[in-house]
Design a protein that fits this description.
It is built from eight helices and 14 strands. It is of the alpha+beta class and 373 residues long. A hairpin with a 5-residue loop joins strand 2 and strand 3. It starts with a helix and ends in a 15-residue tail after the last strand.
Length: 373
């Protein structure tokens, strides 16, 4: 099977789609031996090289306040053939990942932020998803097949400038304040990667389960592509496929484990990519080991990362046993730029909202359509 995956990488036309289906299939399960695992030095392919970051652009104190190790301790990698792509292998301080999992489940889905459930439920029904779901999640029995809570039905949440799934655009009047803690984390990581003036303006959070996938797509709706796309992964692991500038270009498979950060910038900013499969964390524990640890007692008082209560973590831990959460952060506007005048509705394609993130479907493509040229 490894030879099969390798041969797919060499093909041109539809190579990406074939590789997506290969890793997506359930029976027989795929061979993951060709998937790059940045957490295991011996598993690096010849494409991988060490990447030097700029520790001077993010002080040790600012890194600590964002829940990160000093930049000099980060393990960052690049890939031959993908200039501008940076993979940072879990630079988070022990216990700090818990904060982001809790925020993504308890805080960020709160109104006035928008989620996929808003597309077919009333605002009162989608308010306080945490309060309406926590007892049901905490009491779940793994041996039983039980109805999903509202939190388990969550597929995406947007904050800052809200991505419009119908028009595939952002707008000035579709905005809520961007979370200050996520802003600090994002600007710190961007600075360490050489983007000092990065502004975190829009976030899309994706919620995956073991039967979830994310179709082949490119993130091109932002008005300034000179700024990087940041991706943060928590919980169970994912197989991530990184392709080329054309949808049919071959892709390189790699694992994203809990705590890993991916930066797509420069020539890699507009590359096609996808997530065909969610897999168990490499340590094979129900909750990844890096999420078992609690926050240190000497965490700075001005840290954006806060300790998670035992009661809240009991809910988060139960959820994350079968799930992965991904935060992607973008800068939408160029420095000093504003949004253009809204186009007429007839110039855009009408699509069903919420189809950007696939559920249990075996389809290899996202159903989001391109805006007409």
């Amino acid at each position: 099977m490894a030879k099969m995956a390798a041969s797919m990488l060499q093909q041109g036309e539809d190579a990406f789609r074939k590789l997506f289906k290969f890793y997506r299939r359930k029976n027989p399960p795929p061979d993951f031996s060709d998937v790059i695992d940045f957490s295991k030095p011996g598993n690096h392919s010849r494409k991988v090289f060490n990447c030097d970051l700029n520790a001077a652009l993010l002080s040790d104190g600012d890194a600590c306040r964002a829940g990160l190790h000093p930049v000099c301790k980060w393990k960052a990698f690049g890939l031959d053939g993908y200039p501008g792509f940076i993979f940072i292998s879990n630079p988070f301080l022990p216990g700090s990942q818990r904060h982001w999992v809790k925020q993504c489940l308890k805080v960020y889905p709160q109104k006035p932020n928008i989620c996929n459930l808003d597309m077919h439920m009333s605002p009162t029904d989608t308010d306080n998803l945490w309060e309406k779901s926590r007892d049901q999640i905490r009491q779940k029995c793994a041996a039983k097949r039980e109805p999903k809570s509202l939190l388990e039905k969550l597929r995406w949440v947007t904050n800052g400038y809200h991505y419009n799934w119908d028009t595939k655009m952002y707008s000035a009047d579709h905005y809520t304040p961007f979370p200050s803690d996520l802003n600090a984390l994002s600007e710190g990581v961007a600075a360490a990667c050489g983007f000092q003036n990065f502004k975190a303006e829009a976030g899309i959070l994706n919620y995956y389960h073991f039967d979830s996938s994310l179709g082949i797509h490119v993130d091109e709706s932002e008005l300034d592509h000179s700024r990087p796309l940041l991706s943060f992964s928590f919980g169970q692991s994912a197989v991530f496929l990184l392709g080329g500038l054309r949808r049919e270009d071959p892709a390189t498979p790699m694992f994203m484990h809990s705590g890993d950060i991916m930066v797509m910038s420069g020539s890699s900013r507009l590359l096609y990519h996808a997530v065909p499969r969610i897999v168990s964390s490499p340590d094979k524990q129900a909750v990844p080991q890096c999420l078992v640890q609690e926050l240190a007692d000497d965490t700075p008082e001005d840290s954006v990362v806060q300790n998670v209560s035992e009661e809240d973590w009991a809910v988060c831990a139960k959820y994350i046993q079968t799930s992965r959460i991904n935060m992607t952060v973008r800068q939408v506007l160029g420095l000093g730029k504003a949004f253009p005048t809204e186009p007429d509705n007839e110039n855009t394609v009408d699509i069903q909202p919420g189809t950007y993130h696939e559920g249990s479907s075996d389809s290899e493509e996202s159903n989001v359509k391109r805006k007409k040229q």
